[in-house]
Amino acid sequence: MTTHLKDLLDQLSGDADWVGLREHAEITCLRTARNGNAYSNSTDRDKGIMVEVLVDGQFAYAGTTDITRAGVQRCYDRAAGLAALANRYNLHKFDDTARPAGSGGYRSAVARPLDEITPAEVQESLIDITSRLKISDKIIETQASALITRLQVNFVSSNGADWSQEFSIITRDFAATAQGNGDFQRRSLGMEGRQWGAEALDVSVMADDIARVAEQALELLDAEECPTGQFDTLLMPDQLYLQVHESVGHPLELDRILGDERNYAGWSFVSPEDFGSLQYGSPLLNISFDPGLAGEMATYRFDDTGVAAEKHFLIRNGLLVRGIGGIESQQRSALPGVSSSRACSWNRPPIDRMGNINIEPGDSSYEDMLAAMDRGIIMHTNRSWSIDDYRNKFQFGCEYAQQVENGRITKTLKNPNYRGITTPFWNKLAMVGDLASREIWGSPYCGKGEPNQAIRVGHAVPACLFRNLDVFGGA
Ligand SMILES: [Zn+2]
Question: What CATH number does domain 3-222 carry, 3.30.1330.60, 3.30.2290.10, 3.20.20.240, 3.30.160.20?
Fold first, then answer.
């Protein structure tokens, strides 16, 4: 996979202290269906090489789609020139320990490779889903989509790095919109992104979920409004994953804490002194960076600086212990981090990103958590979110909720929302679901960086019970 890159590397002339070549080749196809018909179909192809150099302690880079020897040499010369310019404003002198010489390969674990399904079969599956969702005249619109990505990343460097990674990624979703009783309600699967193959588009496996989504869309038309007040709240994985993303993942990014992102995606309420001392959540909260859990969006063997991927706890027994920062931010800040320098393409540099940020399962079954609620609410599937630049105050809305009285589900509720402040919220965590309640969710659209980078993130989380959340309806 990397022979051609090694040849290009060997042929470069110049006097950089270190050189790396990262090749990124991606084909992403988005197909959608609507109301029993094909609706859209587009394919993006992207291939190029980023040349990264280290000159006198300063990293710089340039990317090109001209992957000839001359094209890559021009790119190298440009990167070396930029390193000299940037060095006038150098923040930290790096050496090649910031680019370890890993070698090896990775390939997504799939049941059925993507080339075993034809484009026509994908489209037929999506059309079939939209037809199955139409269970009533009150269902006025049905939609289904599949975002299918094949990605190959190859990396070689002058200090001996030589690795390849091959990813098979699908984000699927479907939804039904119902109208009646003077109301509209939309119920969806939720954006379900994972590393998997053609098995993700098997309609027969999804049949129960398709039926559930359609029935719940109708059910919401007759549901009561979610009440306002303080309630014990069971957040299901298809909501809780986004809560983790926004109120644990982003605030723990070391480049935010260092101030790099302040004028764009925001800052963080977390300060460097908080690591090792801030009680982020209740003692039941254990959050890990886990690039090794098969099937998640951001499972990999190396990050894009070549650091070998390893699992680490970010929050252990509620205590903040580690940030989400790659090797450069770790060296700049002298804080512990993880293998999370990631680039979305050949024309973007690696920056601090989330990978798989997971809540470790606890020991409570779903039934245990239900039984522990005298008067509570269960919320399913994210519908809306808002969080401030410091990642502190937030509110989330969900598609569907259930009222619990004396440990039993008694009715369906519509338009549920809750609000909170990050650390008080996580300190209200009272029960953590076991492995059986854990689900893998992930998004292809985490945005950050200037110029912008949209990257794929994974979140494996169990259902969790929180005491006395501020719940409100109507929004
Ligand atoms: Zn994000």
Answer: 3.30.2290.10
